[in-house]
Amino acid sequence: MHHKNALVEVDGQSVELKVRAGSVGPNVVDIGSIYRQTKMFTYDPGFTSTASCESKITFIDGDEGVLLHRGYPIEQLAEHGDFLEVCYLLLYGELPTAAQKKDFDYRVTHHTMVHEQMSRFFTGFRRDAHPMAVMCGCVGALSAFYHDSTDITDPHQRIVASLRMIAKMPTLAAMAYKYHIGQPFVYPKNDLDYASNFLRMCFAVPCEEYVVNPVLSRAMDRIFILHADHEQNASTSTVRLAGSSGANPFACIAAGIACLWGPAHGGANEAALNMLQEIGSADRIPEYIARAKDKNDPFRLMGFGHRVYKNYDPRAKIMQKTTHEVLGELGHKDDPLLQVAMELERIALTDEYFIEKKLYPNIDFYSGITLKAMGFPTTMFTVLFALARTVGWIAQWNEMIEDPEQRIGRPRQLYIGEPHRDCVRMTER
Ligand code: SDX
Questions:
Q1: How far is ligand 1, taken at its centre, from the CA of residue 327, in Å?
Q2: Pocket of ligand 1 (CB under 6 A)
Q3: Band of residue 1 on the pLDDT scale cut at 50, 70, 90
């Protein structure tokens, strides 16, 4: 369907710009020629109004609270599928048949071990190093081991690198956790499903058999699904930008991990739990709500608000349900943190400030409580987010490499510094 061009008047000059439509969601004004035509740049720090690419992977309608992966609603994927099925969907674009799923599970399962030399990287870190620091280092180091899957121009090598990343992130994440707590590494077991394998690598000890709780492995698998991909968020955009220079996939994923670590992004689940612990009891909530509204106070309610969702984050609703299931199973349904979280949510959703600014709980608001109940320390929360988001990063990275329109990302700037001036000798300053 043809759309009328956009007309931009600049310094008395009319510039026509193409309008392009997607399959659903907002159209875009193609500004690629605007500098050539006007010698002016567009300006959009934070990219609040900027589409960086075409994509077929994930669609979000922030006003309606809709999240689709290759067209399928997150609610249905989380309810009926498993994480590796969602991985297949994100990578290949279609839900797998039973045979395709069986083959995909087999291939991922048989890439879960890491090179034995990798364990020596861990011993270089202090035991109290933040596990995200360890993950940044170790995932980037994978490119030192897998020279047979770093040629990004070879589709076969790209898919091998993709499977390796999906398969090895749980192993590396569990190793980061075990190293952090001073326990021996646990090798993956091929007769366990993805989430069960991860829980066992985290919580098994050599002294006794570890039996996976099916309620917890189902919850873990669902938490992975909810975090799998989310359009062009900050860490995905980081992976795409790193990949646009031709960097190898392991280095690009390491860049994504670094970006996700920030408390405004993936670090929010750790920050949200720390905030709930600081609040401590429901009677202190009004004090924190007041601080969140105070322009002079940098405090924000962690786990609330979102750049895109101006409605309830659909993942948060599923996360809340999973939280109740896990706490119920573990006998923590009266967990004081959950009580504080539920009361904070109730108050915030009725408060004029939050309603006017459309600040709703996001996925990070409930994930921390669930992960803590499952036995993970807060420092591991963002590692689990990175583990799950790896498939989204790698799917978006593949799409970027295959996109004929993509070239190295190189934004410009609005320069507000000193115009030309000549150096003055030190003796004359
Ligand atoms: C994730 O992009 C993604 O998709 C990310 C993610 C994914 O899956 O990849 O969904 C994962 O990162 C979720 C978000 C987790 N972050 C947090 O929970 C941290 C707390 N939230 C805020 O830092 C904030 O809401 C952001 C960073 C999430 C969004 O920031 P924006 O879009 O830049 O919004 P903003 O900072 O401009 O806020 C708009 C207004 C501001 O007030 P005004 O300047 O207009 O007066 O709302 C206020 C803000 O002060 N505001 C908050 C608030 N979030 C925004 N006030 C109090 N508490 C908050 N949490």
A1: 27
A2: 230, 233, 264-266, 268, 292, 300-308, 357, 359, 362, 364
A3: low
Pocket test for ligand 1, best of 232, 354, 359, 369 (most atoms within 8 A of CB): 359
- What digits encode the pLDDT tens for the residues 171-221? 999 999 999 999 999 999 999 999 999 999 999 999 999 999 999 999 999
Strand partners, 205: 208
Quickly tell me which residue has 């900027």 as its tokens.
50
Could you confirm whether 364 is annotated as catalytic?
Answer: yes
**Distance in Å, CA 353 to ligand 1 centroid:** 14
Q: Say what the pLDDT of residue 3 is.
A: 80
CA distance 32 to 18: 9
For 248, other C-beta atoms within 10 Å of its C-beta total: 21
Please determine, for residue 135, whether its predicted confidence score (pLDDT) is greater than 90: yes
Name the closest-CA residue to atom 36, ligand 1: 307
Helices (H), 182-335: 194-203, 214-226, 234-243, 249-260, 268-279, 285-293, 314-329
> What are the start-end ranges of the H helices in 95-243?
98-109, 118-122, 131-141, 155-181, 194-203, 214-226, 234-243
* Mean pLDDT score across all residues of the chain: 94
Check 105, 221, 306, 313 and give the catalytic one.
Answer: 306
Each residue's pLDDT tens digit, 373-407: 999 999 999 999 999 999 999 999 999 999 998 89
Q: How far is the CA of 178 from the centre of ligand 1 (A)?
A: 33
* Helix residue ranges, H only, 25-152: 34-38, 74-80, 83-92, 98-109, 118-122, 131-141
Which residue puts its alpha carbon closest to atom 46 of ligand 1?
A: 295
- CA 356 to centroid of ligand 1, rounded, Å: 14
The residue type at 36 = R
Report the atom number in ligand 1 closest to the C-alpha of 227: 8
> Could you report the per-residue pLDDT of 287-296, keeping only the tens digit for each?
999 999 999 9
- Of 364, 403, 420, 422, catalytic: 364
Q: What pTM does this model have?
A: 0.94
